[in-house]
Write a structure and sequence with these properties.
Layout (H helix, E strand, L loop, with lengths): L3 E6 L1 H16 L17 E5 L5 E5 L1 E6 L16 H12 L18 H8 L31 E4 L12 H15 L1 H11 L6 E7 H18 L5 E6 L13 H20 L2 E2 L24 H15 L12 H8 L9 E5 L8 H6 L2 E2 L16 E9 L3 H12 L6 E5 L2 E2 L19 E2 L1 E8 L2 H18 L2 H5 L4 H16 L8 H4 L5
Parallel strand pairs: 1-4, 1-6, 4-5, 6-7, 7-8, 11-12
Antiparallel strand pairs: 2-3, 9-10, 9-15, 11-15, 13-14
Helix pairs in contact: 1-8, 4-5, 4-6, 6-7, 7-12, 12-14
Subcellular location: Mitochondrion
Function: Involved in the partitioning of the mitochondrial organelle and mitochondrial DNA (mtDNA) inheritance.
Main location: mitochondrion
Length: about 500
């Protein structure tokens, strides 16, 4: 067994993480003789509840602003309580000897979903699904207990402060948080040292709000664990290079911040799978069978989580031969830069139709502005597919289809994807009382030539910023030499990928 340590940073990342951990919780089996499909110890550690009852806690560090944790508190693990508030007040008094005037805000009420969980011991999964309109925080539909040190609450910022894309501020905030909490020495090391054979770190983070922060975290992590594999899912901002007005200061700042994140991930992580912001997803035939609101973080995070969880499922399957390093090596076999794509289709047709379903395979990593989002129009260098819920005849159909492709993928076929009551009704048109308990889907990690388009757009943006050296770059503290170095490194990453059928004119590469 090789354990995985998970890192989540940012609101969207934690929505994705909530769905991810709810799915892991659904794999637990309680019938005698029923074996789970995954090895739970890979992602969970044993712990105790407040009543000293044994429970399993995720091996995860969760970073977000304090206000975004909602009712989640270290003492309760799942729900907030007055004991937590009293503890925080008492801790604050230890640093002040004078009189204290205490003002308390009204406590945040439990979510309706958690109320149902508390009222019914044997909760009927199909009876009371989460309503999107009732979601206030990502913790509102969490079904697992967390270790107190998993919850890393960062100070809230004033409403008038816009820190999206502030690279240096994020790095400075990590330094403060690390010095105040001894994060790397205590919390992170606690999870690392209790592992028998840690296989690596899986990171999911919002680049706009936690780009500089996670970069500083990873840099510190690498200083101590230079050879430990790291597998990341950076969630890019909604500012796409090539479609940003030069007068849009915040948009330019977020795009430059994304460029810095990608450049540094190439140096620090063994493999990164950038994911485009849900607001930029195209609306076409890939949405067949889906009822999805791109403006709902609860909905979009569930879709992303289903594909992230499925694509990484081979890391947790019982008897698996895969680990983070082997998957990174398989996807980097061509010697290309350390970037791959996540694509998928949900739900699969019933019965599975290879040509129809593969045309619906949507690439969540491709920049959608000005070009297709379907991966089959680019050169695929390596591929790792995981299917969920295919029957034996459908597996044969899939295998025949893959034999006709230019490259043979690594393939894992697994049971259908579970749909706990916390999952939105994305694939259901029936009444909630008859909602499905599982879904059929396909997720794919690919190393593809279309990555060249992504890095070319960022390199072009930085090149233009170098020539202009606008107020935005001054505010970000980026010197002209730093911008030129960033531009050159982005072009180097771009040039390391084959061009596919895009042509140099589609890369906007100029003299580079």
């Amino acid at each position: 067994m090789k354990e995985i340590l998970y890192i989540q940073a940012g609101t969207l990342a934690n929505h994705i993480g909530t769905h991810f951990w709810n799915t892991q919780e659904s794999y637990f089996t309680y019938e005698e003789g029923e074996d789970p499909i995954v090895t739970h110890d890979i992602s969970f550690r044993e712990g105790l509840t407040r009543k000293d009852e044994p429970t399993f806690c995720p091996r995860v560090l969760i970073f977000d602003r304090k206000a975004n944790f909602g009712t989640l508190s270290p003492t309760s693990g799942l729900y907030g309580d007055k004991e937590t508030d009293a503890l925080e007040v008492e801790q604050s008094r230890t640093t002040w000897n004078g009189n204290v005037v205490e003002y308390r805000q009204d406590s945040i009420p439990k979510s309706s979903y958690h109320t149902h969980l508390e009222e019914e011991t044997a909760y009927p999964e199909a009876s009371a699904p989460v309503k999107t309109s009732n979601i206030r925080y990502w913790s509102d539909y969490s079904r697992v207990y967390f270790h107190p040190r998993s919850l890393q609450k960062l100070p809230d910022h004033a409403d008038w402060e816009s820190l999206e894309g502030d690279w240096n501020a994020g790095r400075e905030e990590f330094a403060r948080h690390d010095s105040e909490t001894s994060l790397m020495e205590d919390s992170f090391r606690l999870f690392v040292e209790e592992c028998d054979a840690l296989q690596g770190v899986q990171l999911t983070h919002d680049t706009a709000t936690f780009g500089g922060f996670t970069n500083a975290f990873l840099t510190s992590f690498r200083d101590e664990f230079a050879k430990l594999p790291c597998f990341s899912f950076p969630l890019l901002s909604d500012s796409i290079p090539g479609s940003i007005d030069q007068d849009d200061a915040i948009g330019m700042r977020k795009a430059l911040n994304d460029a810095l994140c990608l450049r540094n991930l190439n140096e620090i992580c063994d493999l990164s799978i950038p994911l485009q912001a849900p607001s930029t997803w195209t609306l076409d035939d890939w949405l067949e069978g889906l009822s999805l609101s791109r403006t709902s973080m609860y909905d979009t995070s569930a879709l992303l989580s289903s594909h992230i969880e499925t694509a990484t499922l081979p890391l947790r399957l019982r008897g698996t031969q895969h680990d983070i390093l082997s998957i990174c090596s398989a996807l980097n076999a061509s010697g290309s830069p350390r970037f791959s794509h996540l694509s998928g289709v949900l739900p699969l047709s019933d019965p599975f139709m290879s040509e129809h379903d593969m045309k619906r395979l949507y690439d969540f990593s491709t920049s959608h502005t000005g070009r297709t989002a379907h991966v089959d129009r680019d050169i695929v260098l390596s591929r790792f597919d995981v299917s969920r819920g295919l029957t034996a005849p459908e597996v044969q159909t899939y295998d025949i289809w893959t034999e006709l492709r230019d490259i043979s993928p690594y393939i894992v076929h697994a049971p259908a994807y579970p749909l706990p009551s916390s999952f939105p009704t994305l694939c259901n048109t029936a009444s909630p009382s008859s909602r499905a308990r599982s879904a059929r889907l396909l997720s794919s990690l690919t190393t593809t030539s279309s990555s060249a388009h992504l890095f070319a757009k960022y390199a072009t943006l930085v090149e233009d910023a170098t020539k202009r050296h606008t107020d935005v770059t001054n505010q970000m503290g980026l010197e002209a030499d730093e911008l030129r170095e960033l531009k050159d490194e982005l072009w180097a990453i771009c040039d390391a990928f084959p061009e596919g059928n895009a042509g140099q004119e589609d890369l906007d590469g100029g003299e580079e």
